[in-house]
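User: Predict the structure for this protein chain, please.
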Amino acid sequence: MTMRVAELWSHPVKSLVGTSVDTASFDPFGMVGDRVIAFRDLRRGRLAGSRQYPALAQWKAVGSGEHLAVELPDGSTVQLSDDRATELLGEALGTDIAIEHLAPAEQLDSYRRRPDPDAAADPEGYLRDVLGREAGEPLPDFAKFGPSILEFETPPGTFVDCFPVLILTTSALRSMAAALPDSVIDVRRFRPKIGRAHV
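Assistant: Here is the predicted structure, written as structure tokens:
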């Protein structure tokens, strides 16, 4: 089986819209330079994601390294190196946040799940919130993810939710378009590393 890759996408900040790139390098943790920053919701004690904060799906990561910034829907840009970045982005998101940089995989405490009062009060509701599942919708079979998913927020050494590389094929896009004819199927919404792959 061969695969022709039409697009490569880099997402330097977890849950934000990324940018198309011409080339990329991969290591055992995924794409080098991908998801090296995440925002932590300080009120809830967990990493902020677009399921809980849909606004993140409209924010775009631009630049790289020390010049990495967030472009907001109104066109304004916040440099992550700015002393007021957490204040400005937290205000835009409606919660208190911290900017977290990817830690080495050996620093396990950086990735452990932190106590969340919502999880203790309603474990199933908490899981449905994290996974974006509605009442009555089945939860996934966690066995295929391995036991570490219950201990760690993300696999140590990464800020991906589960697997290091998401490949979005043209056949998957066609299937979604057929199943949801009134919806706009935008590749960027899925934040793949490899997009519009022809298998």
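The mean pLDDT is 90.
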